[in-house]
């Protein structure tokens, strides 16, 4: 059986979220307002495992608080212990409209500035130069730059420091603010619940560590003897 290496596993995990390279935060004093935006729909809604599910499709392994442990199939039609996973949440505005989404997981980069990576997707026609503003429980806001836009939406590839992850663990709610290009004087505010984040962050890192270990163990078992 052909197995991916643990290093390739990490590459797949990063590629699944479109992460490298990542933007780090800048401090910002902007506060969020109100507005409306078109929902994001990237066609990756959760579906139970089926024989026809292709490699690369996603499924929800577990619900943890307000987060989903979402994984990517390594092989068609199967859920495997080597599937890379991410912590996912759909973000809504005050009217309940789906506006953005975030996918997050820990990084194994010794001495790197970021301990976690994330992809945030917002609607098309987001004003990219205004970036994304994020605050936790009303604390000092930080700004994260966008990377590109596609037919799905506009992507911000974000690197979170340990201090930012600790703020998520200690907080109850984060607020993300984006600005629509057609209405540059309008702030669109969405909430990111932090209920279950601590347990979810631990779970996604444990799942991915076990997956990488399983790949390494299988490679050693299958390696030809000299």
Compact overview of the structure:
36% of the residues are buried. With 226 residues, this protein is α+β, with helices and mostly antiparallel strands.
**Mean residue pLDDT:** 81
Number of helices: 3
Q: Kindly give the count of domains.
A: 1
Rg on CA atoms, Å: 18 Å
Q: In terms of structural class, how would the helical and strand content be classed?
A: alpha+beta
Protein architecture, described:
The protein is of the alpha+beta class. The protein has one domain (6-45, 56-219): Immunoglobulin-like, CATH 2.60.40.1880. 21% of the residues lie in helices and 31% in strands. The strands form two sheets. A seven-stranded antiparallel beta sheet has the order 2-3-4-5-6-10-9, sandwiched between helices. A five-stranded antiparallel beta sheet has the order 1-8-7-11-12, with no helix packed on it. A hairpin with a 5-residue loop joins strand 4 (85-92) and strand 5. Helix 1 runs antiparallel to helix 3 (197-222). 36% of the residues are buried.
Q: How is the topology of this model organized?
A:
Blueprint: H1 6-17, E1 26-28, E2 58-64, E3 67-72, E4 85-92, E5 98-106, E6 116-122, E7 132-136, E8 141-144, E9 148-149, E10 154-160, H2 162-170, E11 173-178, E12 188-193, H3 197-222
Antiparallel strand pairs: 1-8, 2-3, 3-4, 4-5, 5-6, 6-10, 7-8, 7-11, 9-10, 11-12
Helix pairs in contact: 1-3
Quick tags:
globular; 21% helix; 226 residues; Immunoglobulin-like; alpha+beta; 3 helices; seven-stranded antiparallel sheet
């Amino acid at each position: 059986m052909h197995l991916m290496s643990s290093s390739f596993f990490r590459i797949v995990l990063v590629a699944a979220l479109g992460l490298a390279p990542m933007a780090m935060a800048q401090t910002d004093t902007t506060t969020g307002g109100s507005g409306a935006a078109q929902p994001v729909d990237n066609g990756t809604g959760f579906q139970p495992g089926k024989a026809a599910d292709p490699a690369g499709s996603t499924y929800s392994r577990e619900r943890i608080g307000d987060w989903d442990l979402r994984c990517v199939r390594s092989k068609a039609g199967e859920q495997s212990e080597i599937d890379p996973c991410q912590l996912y949440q759909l973000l809504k505005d005050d009217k309940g409209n789906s506006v953005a989404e975030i996918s997050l997981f820990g990084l194994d980069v010794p001495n790197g500035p970021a301990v976690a990576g994330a992809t945030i997707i917002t609607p098309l026609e987001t004003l990219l130069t205004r970036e994304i503003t994020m605050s936790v429980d009303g604390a000092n806001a930080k700004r994260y730059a966008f990377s590109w836009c596609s037919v799905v939406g506009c992507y911000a590839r974000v690197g979170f420091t340990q201090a930012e992850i600790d703020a998520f663990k200690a907080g109850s709610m984060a607020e993300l603010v984006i600005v629509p290009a057609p209405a540059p004087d309008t702030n669109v505010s969405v909430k990111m619940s932090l209920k279950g984040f601590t347990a979810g962050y631990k779970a996604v890192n444990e799942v991915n560590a076990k997956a990488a270990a399983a790949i390494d163990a299988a490679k050693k078992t299958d390696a030809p003897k000299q």
